[in-house]
């Protein structure tokens, strides 16, 4: 007789911690490895006569479990067993796990890695527009570092600071690098998670993220808006306890078998970052600039929100340098007003006169126009 209680053993998923992003502790197996793991489990089930062997399509399951780690594959198997038990509740003698039980389990068990990626996706809600050569250079440089770092056997820690004016797109770039890195542990440390926390508590929370990351072979941590983590108002007015903690963590070598990529973002000036000894705490720093007129064109042309005859005037009317965030806000505002109430891409264009009005209202009008 099948032991129903044995089948019903639960394997809890390791789900989110205080920072709201899940912890993933192992390297993600590839499709072949997933097939092997699932085969081992199905063999065990066959031995115990729990499996409806003819029906199970292991290759299909291996291909549909991208981003599942080993523990999550086990959780999937356990969940399929639970579905089989529930289905057979009137006759526990003949419990058989079928492909259908696995398909139901796939709806229930989700890989934590997907949650981690979704958490990063929230920081680039509009996707990534081409912001010109200088942004592309920053992205390509850090991505190359990350890929080399991933392969290197000698470097356990790489830290990179993206500095530049507020709204220039630093967090969106950092999130993109985190997503594309493919590191199974990815987490953003941001001030939003720390509102009303004491200095001591902030330090403990930040340290915990680094400690958790060290349990994974490959991790990426984004320290977002460092000035907000520090409560920075100006040089001389910030939490030195949080600063010391961050500097210490940026220099703490992860344990053997663990690799950590840290990407910081900050709008503090390079001079102040130097004075705070924060600039040198990172291995590299790159500037994420506001958009130049050439960059603005790069953004505006594909968006197709202006008549081509108006684009030059629109760019001339903008300040010589404008962060991507501000440009997007201006476009959004102008799209909602003017003669035609709402417009969608490719249909009605922004009225230049209304665009000027928006710039005036928000003090974004170029001094030279
Ligand atoms: N390449 C891009 N394509 C589309 N939208 C972008 C791009 N870069 C940034 N944005 C958007 O601009 C806004 C500001 O970006 P982000 O938060 O990354 O800037 P930031 O430099 O980190 O700002 P802050 O210094 O204020 O934290 C966000 O809404 C973001 O989605």
Structural account:
With 369 residues, this protein is α/β, with parallel strands linked by helices. It folds into 3 domains: 4-111, Helicase, Ruva Protein, domain 3; 122-287, P-loop containing nucleotide triphosphate hydrolases (Rossmann fold, 3-Layer(aba) Sandwich), CATH 3.40.50; 293-361, no CATH class. 49% of the residues lie in helices and 8% in strands. It has 16 helices and 5 strands. It has a 5-stranded parallel β-sheet with strand order 2-3-4-1-5, sandwiched between helices. Strand 2 (185-189), helix 9 and strand 3 form a beta-alpha-beta unit. Helix 9 runs parallel beside helix 11, helix 13 (293-303) runs antiparallel to helix 14 (308-317) and helix 14 (308-317) packs parallel to helix 16. The longest helix has 19 residues, at 133-151. Residues 1-26 have low confidence and may be disordered. It binds adenosine-5'-triphosphate (ATP). Adenosine-5'-triphosphate binds at residues 124-126, 128-129, 131, 166-172, 225, 265, 267, 324-325, 328.
For CATH, the homologous superfamily of the largest domain is named as P-loop containing nucleotide triphosphate hydrolases
Unreliably modeled segments: 1-26
Give the CATH class of the largest domain: Alpha Beta
State the helicity in percent bands: 40-55%
Given helix and strand content, the structural type is alpha/beta
Q: For the largest beta sheet, what order do the strands appear in spatially? A: 2-3-4-1-5
Number of strands: 5
Ligands bound here? adenosine-5'-triphosphate
Q: N- to C-terminal separation? A: 86 Å
Mean pLDDT, to the nearest integer, reads 84
Radius of gyration, CA atoms, in whole angstroms = 26 Å
CATH architecture of the largest domain: 3-Layer(aba) Sandwich
Topology-level CATH name of the largest domain: Rossmann fold
Main sheet characteristics: 5 strands, parallel
Proportion of residues in β-strands? 5-15%
What is the global morphology? globular
Q: In sequence order, what are the helices and strands, one letter per element?
A: HHHHHHHEHEHEHHEHEHHHH
Question: How many domains in all?
Answer: 3
Keywords: ATP-binding, Cytoplasm, ER-Golgi transport, Hydrolase, Magnesium, Metal-binding, Nucleotide-binding, Protein transport, Transport
Pfam family, one: AAA
Cofactor: Mg(2+)
Subcellular location: Cytoplasm
């Amino acid at each position: 007789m099948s032991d129903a209680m044995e089948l019903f053993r639960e394997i809890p998923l390791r789900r989110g911690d205080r920072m709201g992003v899940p912890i993933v502790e192992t390297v993600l197996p590839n499709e072949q490895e997933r097939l092997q793991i699932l085969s081992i489990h199905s063999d065990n089930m066959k031995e115990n006569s729990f499996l409806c062997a003819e029906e199970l399509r292991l290759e299909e399951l291996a291909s549909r479990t991208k981003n599942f780690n080993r523990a999550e594959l086990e959780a999937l198997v356990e969940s399929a067993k639970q579905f089989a038990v529930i289905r057979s509740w009137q006759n526990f003698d003949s419990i058989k796990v079928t492909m259908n039980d696995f398909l139901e389990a796939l709806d229930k068990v989700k890989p934590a890695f997907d949650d981690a990626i979704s958490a990063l996706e929230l920081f680039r809600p509009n996707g990534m527009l081409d912001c010109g050569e200088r942004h592309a250079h920053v992205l390509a440089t850090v991505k190359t570092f990350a890929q080399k770092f991933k392969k290197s056997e000698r470097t356990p820690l790489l830290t990179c600071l993206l500095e530049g004016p507020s709204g220039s797109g630093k967090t969106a770039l950092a999130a993109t690098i985190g997503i594309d890195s493919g590191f199974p542990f990815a987490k953003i440390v941001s001030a939003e998670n720390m509102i009303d926390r004491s200095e001591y508590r902030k330090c403990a929370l930040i340290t915990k993220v680094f400690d958790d990351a060290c349990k994974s072979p490959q991790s990426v941590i984004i320290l977002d808006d460092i000035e907000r983590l520090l409560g920075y108002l100006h040089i001389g007015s910030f939490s030195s306890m949080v600063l010391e903690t961050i500097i210490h963590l940026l220099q703490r070598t992860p344990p053997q078998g663990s690799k950590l990529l840290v990407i910081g973002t900050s709008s503090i000036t390079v001079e102040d970052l130097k004075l705070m000894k924060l600039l040198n705490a990172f291995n590299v720093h790159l500037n994420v600039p506001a958009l130049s007129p050439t960059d603005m064109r790069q953004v505006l042309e594909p968006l197709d929100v202006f008549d081509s005859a108006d684009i030059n005037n629109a760019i001339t009317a903008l300040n010589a340098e404008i962060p991507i965030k501000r440009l997007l806000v201006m476009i959004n505002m102008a799209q909602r007003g003017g003669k035609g109430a709402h417009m969608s891409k490719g249909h009605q264009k922004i009225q230049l006169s209304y665009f000027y009005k928006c710039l005036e209202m928000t003090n974004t009008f170029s001094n030279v126009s």
